[in-house]
Amino acid sequence: MKKSRLLFLPLFLALLVVLAAGCGGGSSSSVPADAVATVGNDTISKAQFDLVLSAAKGSYKHQGQKFPAVGTAQYGQLRDQIVTWLVQQDELTQGAKQIGASVTQNDIDRRVNQLKKHYFKGNGKKWAQALKASGETLPEVELQIRAQLLGQKIYSKITSGATVSNAEVRSYYEKNKSSLYMVKATRPVRHILVSSKAKADQIEQQLKNGASFATLAKKYSKDTASAKKGGSLGTITQGQTLPPFDKAAFSLKTGVISPPVRSVYGWHIIEATGPVLPAHVTPFSKVRAAIRKSLIDQKKSAMATAWSNKLKKQFTGKVHYQAGYQPSTTAAAAPAAPTTTG
Fold first, then answer.
1. Which residue has the higher pLDDT, 332 or 292?
2. Scanning 46, 201, 307, 331, which has its CA 20 to 30 A from the CA of 166?
3. Cross-strand pairs, 190
C-alpha cells in the first residue's frame, strides 16, 4: 500500500480543487459546544476534527518531524487547514445529496478491499501491518477514501450530460488546422561534425573515394551522440536545426553528400539518407477522437466550475465557527462573502 498521508491541502483529487466550495463565515454562539463549526443545518463535531488532527500527528511522526505545539503559528495554520477541509467536505456532501450523489459505507468497503487486493493480494494481516507502519488508522484511511469517492461521484454526476456534436469537432479542426495540425517537412539525415574546414575537406574527399560514412563519423565526429550511430540524426524536422544545416539538409538529393557546411558548432558533412516527406496537414480522421475528448473535457470543466460557484453562493453566510476554530483567512473577511479555498 502506498504510504500516503491525509494532509496537507490540497488533498486527494485534483478535481476537488475545482469542486471545493468556499467556506467563509463568522463565529457564532449558536455553534454547539461539542462542535467546531456548523454548515447550514449540519454540525461538524470536535470528534471529526480530532480524527483529522490525529492523522496529521501520525503524518508528522511518520516523517520524523515534531508536531507543532498548541498556540504556535504552525499549529494555527494546521488547525485552519483541517477546519477548512472539513467544512468543504460538508458543503460538498450536502451539494452531492442535492444532485443524487452519495458515498455509502459499502462504497468505502469496496475501495478498501480493492486496495488490499492490489497491494497485498487480499492479505488482511499485511494490510494491517502496512497501516501500522505508515502511522495510519482504518478510520483515517476511510476518511480519505470517502473524500476521493465523493469527488469522483460529484464530478461524474454533474458532467454526465457533456456532449460534443460532430459539427463542433469539425469546426474546431477547421479553425485550428493551420496552427495545430500542420506537420512540417521531415527528412532522415546523418552528419559528421569537425572543428576545421581543412578536416572537413579531407573527410569529404575520403567519402568521394568510397570511404564508409559511418566509419568516419565514429572516428572523427565531435557529435558523440550521433557518432555512435554512424552519424545518424534520425529524422529531423524542417526548421529544427540551425539555418545553414537546415538549408543544406533539405536541399540535397537523396544519397548525396554535401560539401562542408559551417555552423556555430563547427563544420558539417551532411548526407540525406532518405527523401523529404513534404509538409502536410494531419488528416481529420486521425485527430477527430482526440479533438472530441478535448472538447468534452472543456465542457466538463465548465460544468464543474458552474456547479462549484452555485454551491459557494448557497453557503454564503451559512457557515459559523466555534470560538477558537475560525480559520484566519475567513476571520479577516467575516461577515463578507466566502473566501474561495482549494
1. 292
2. 307
3. 232, 271
Where do we find the cell 555552423?
263
CA distances from 171 to 161, 168, 180, 271, 284 (A): 21, 5, 13, 42, 11
Q: How far apart are CA 207 and CA 325, in angstroms?
A: 81
Instruction: Compute the distance between CA of residue 134 and CA of residue 3 in angstroms, rounded to an integer.
Output: 6
**Which helix (DSSP H) or strand (DSSP E) does residue 19 occupy?**
helix 15-19
Contacts of 318 (CB under 8 A, 6+ apart): 25, 39, 40
Query: What's the pTM?
Result: 0.71
**DSSP secondary structure letter of residue 9:** S
Write the pLDDT tens digit of every residue in 174-205: 999 999 999 999 999 999 999 999 999 999 99
pLDDT band at 135 (very low <50, low <70, confident <90, very high): confident
Give the integer Cα–Cα distance in Å for 94 and 27. 21
Rounded Cα distance, 103 and 159, in Å: 18
Instruction: Please report, to the nearest 10 degrees, the dihedral formed by the alpha carbons of residues 244, 250, 251, 256 taken in order.
Output: 100
Which residues, in sequence order, are CB contacts of 201 under 8 Å at separation 6+?
260
Q: In what order do the strands lie in the sheet with 232-237?
A: 232-237, 186-194, 266-272, 261-263
List residues bridging with 188 in a β-sheet. Answer: 235
